[in-house]
Design a protein that fits this description.
Number of strands: 0
Helix content: over 70%
Order of helices and strands: HHHH
Distance between the termini: 45 Å
Strand content: under 5%
Low-confidence stretches: none
Radius of gyration: 15 Å
C-alpha cells in the first residue's frame, strides 16, 4: 500500500509540475494542465488516484487520506489557474 501512495504522490507532482513564472494567459495555462492530465491518463491507461480510491476504506486510513489529498490538490491547482482568469475580468 505504501508503494501505491508513493505512486500517487509522484503522479500528482508530475501532473501539476510547476515551472516557475508563466506569462501566458490563464486560459492557455489551464488548457495545458487539462491536456497534461489527459495525457497522463492516456499514458498510464488508468488514474492512479481512482484506482487506489476503489481499494481504500476505513481500514486503510493512510491510503484514504492520500487519495483525498490527491484530488483536492488537483482541484486546488486548477482553481488557482481559473482564479487568475476571474481576476483578469
Amino acid at each position: 500500500m505504501h508503494e501505491a501512495i508513493g505512486n500517487l504522490d509522484m503522479t500528482l507532482r508530475e501532473t501539476v509540475l510547476e515551472g516557475g513564472s508563466d506569462d501566458r494567459s490563464w486560459l492557455e495555462i489551464y488548457a495545458d494542465k487539462i491536456r497534461d492530465i489527459a495525457q497522463n491518463l492516456a499514458h498510464r491507461k488508468r488514474c492512479v488516484g481512482l484506482h487506489l480510491a476503489y481499494g481504500v476504506d476505513d481500514e486503510t486510513p493512510a491510503a484514504k487520506e492520500a487519495v483525498r489529498i490527491f484530488f483536492l490538490s488537483l482541484r486546488d491547482h486548477l482553481t488557482a489557474i481559473l482564479a487568475r482568469g476571474c481576476q483578469a475580468r
